[in-house]
Amino acid sequence: MGADSDPDALWVSLAQADQQQALKLQQLSDEQDNVAGLVVLFGSDSAQVSRDVQRQLRVVGRYLNAHPMAEVRIEGHTDDLGSPEQNTVLAQARAQMVGYYLIKYGALFEQIDTTAYGERYPQRDGQTAQDRQCNRRVVVEWTTY
Questions:
Q1: Which residues contact residue 120 at a Cβ distance below 8 angstroms, ignoring those fewer than 6 apart?
Q2: Which helix (H) or strand (E) covers residue 25, if one does?
Q3: Which first-to-last residue range defines the signal peptide (predicted)?
Q4: What are the residues whose beta carbons fall under 8 Å from the beta carbon of 79, sequence distance 6 or more?
Q5: Beta-carbon neighbour count of residue 139 at 10 Å?
Q6: Secondary structure class of 56 (helix, strand, coil)
Q7: Where are the domains of the chain?
């Protein structure tokens, strides 16, 4: 007995699974077209990824695994505390940590491109704690098919 004959069946078609996966990605994304994205925020001087973010990256990693032609760009950013050199290293560590989780959850190494910008491209100009929090981020963008 297949999914077509029984609406309560546990089996779904590949097309239905892809549609469900695309819906999950769209819910995670702040983009609307064929590029989807996710912004991951970090604590000060940290590259640690929270469990909630790991769950989101699991969805993206599984999507990338199911779509080997899809590509992902990971951009690491920091606030302006610390030296530019230190911030570039931290931004790279953040981007690599996000990439690590994507690979752990099924993405291929070849699908991932990481870049560290450090403090060069702040999302917010300002000196408040909230401004700095918004700048301590990794931007993840992937193509959808």
A1: none
A2: helix 14-28
A3: none
A4: 44, 87, 119, 122, 131, 132, 133, 135, 136
A5: 20
A6: helix
A7: 43-129
Q: What is the pTM of this model?
A: 0.76
Across 20-29, 112-121, 131-140, least confident range: 20-29
- Helix (H), strand (E), coil (C) string for 72-134: EEEEEECCCCCCHHHHHHHHHHHHHHHHHHHHHCCCCHHHEEEEEEECCCCCCCCCCHHHHHH
36 strand-pairing partners: 142
Is 132 in contact with 44 (CB distance < 8 Å)? yes
Q: What is the pLDDT of residues 70-103, one digit of tens each?
A: 999 999 999 999 999 999 999 999 999 999 999 9
Decide which of 2.60.40.1180, 3.30.1330.60, 3.40.50.450, 3.40.50.1450 is the CATH code for 43-129: 3.30.1330.60
Q: Count Cα atoms within 13 angstroms, Cβ side, for 6.
A: 6
- Phi, psi for residue 92 in degrees, rounded to 5: -65, -40
Give the C-alpha separation, 65 to 104, whole Å.
Answer: 10
SS3 (DSSP) at 139: strand
